[in-house]
Amino acid sequence: MKFTPLFLGALAMGISTAPFAQTTTLTIATVNNGDMVRMQGLTADFTTANPDIALQWVTLEENVLRERVTTDVATKGGQFDVMTIGTYEVPIWAKNGWLVPLDNLGADYDVDDLLPAIRGGLSMDGKLYAAPFYGESSFVMYRTDLMEKAGLTMPDAPTWDFIAEAARAMTDRANDINGICLRGKAGWGENTAFITAMSNSFGARWFDETWHPQFDQPEWKNTLQFYVDLMTEAGPVGASSNGFNENLTLFQQGKCGMWIDATVAASFVTNPAESTVADKVGFALAPDTGMGKRGNWLWAWSLAIPAGSQKVEAAEKFIAWATSKAYLEIVAAKEGWANVPPGTRTSLYANPEYQAAAPFAKMTLESINAADPNSPTVKPVPYTGVQFVAIPEFQGLGTTVGQIFSAALAGQTSVDDALAQAQQAADREMQAGGYY
């Protein structure tokens, strides 16, 4: 064998002559929620352990994220190697062959530790197709001081009538305090998700057993009229533009008496570094009307690998890290146990340190366990999903209905006209899809 002078010189100086390791760059599409943003700030732990993997982030607003990843995964465009998707997409996309099953998350990952309700929603035929970064239901967050000032006591399991009474009593327009903040921004995962979960507790449903739309039924009129009236009398100005992030900011600024939304928000509204009312927040189950269903949903923001990715092994390594028990401990060490991503692992809710740090832990777990995607409504339905209908057409239809409902909230159309438009849109979509 002939050695070049360059090789011999390198050997003499003790320089490694091994070929340079090639870096794999993972492009990760994610949502601009607080827990996801926090994860980006903690990834040095991953890249230090995996110097051959670089991370490139595409962080998007919720509606934009859904549009971008749906287009990419359906065309197998390969733009992203890891996608942040939800409980709605996973079973549909897995069935279409658009996702890579997560078979190699590592021996210490402990997939059996995942909460059964969350794991079940992310699996098909017993295989996990997305790993939950955080799981959530929804519940009531409220200002304990304003409730007391109004002379009221929040029950653990309130009715919608009580919520309406309390919201009106807590509203103080002169001091810029709204009795209640609820989602109004159009989008199937924004206002449609909230109003659909709410409608379940009013006895409404999207479709009957033969897939015929039900927006022309009195239960939907009761739901939407109640929502619009409540928000008009006790909600913020411009509520039709407010989604999760906008309402979170309002609550943290002390401008909401109550907020009914994702349980994941609890750590943000009780964090004194971010919330001006951190020490004045109470929690209650989502409201009902006495029909046997509460207005709470079930969701998990999860990490999945699109079938178009050429970097599956590296992507699976990253997903295993970001959704592991070890990641929860990293967040706990840097940010405190109250701020770890909730709603994914049984062991977290058995952890005394978490129980002590997170006053919302028990209510969060109860809310997640109470949501039943297989029986979401009072009357029988042919679909699964609590705040969505698990059919491919729902993404487009849900956004259309969300736009119609947002217009009703803004006073651009009446409740009756909005429901008539929703009925027509749903009827067209279901006929075009061959449902009847």
Written description of the protein model:
- With 436 residues, the protein is an alpha+beta fold.
- The protein folds into 2 domains: 23-136 and 298-357, Periplasmic binding protein-like II (D-Maltodextrin-Binding Protein, domain 2); 138-296 and 370-432, D-Maltodextrin-Binding Protein, domain 2, CATH 3.40.190.10.
- It has helices spanning 5-12, 34-41, 44-49, 62-75, 89-95, 116-121, 144-149, 160-170, 191-201, 218-234, 244-252, 266-269, 312-322, 325-335, 346-349, 352-357, 361-370, 394-409, 415-432; strands spanning 24-31, 53-60, 82-85, 123-124, 127-128, 131-136, 138-143, 258-262, 281-285, 299-304.
- Helix 18 runs antiparallel to helix 19.
- The longest helix is centred in the C-terminal third of the chain and has 18 residues, at 415-432.
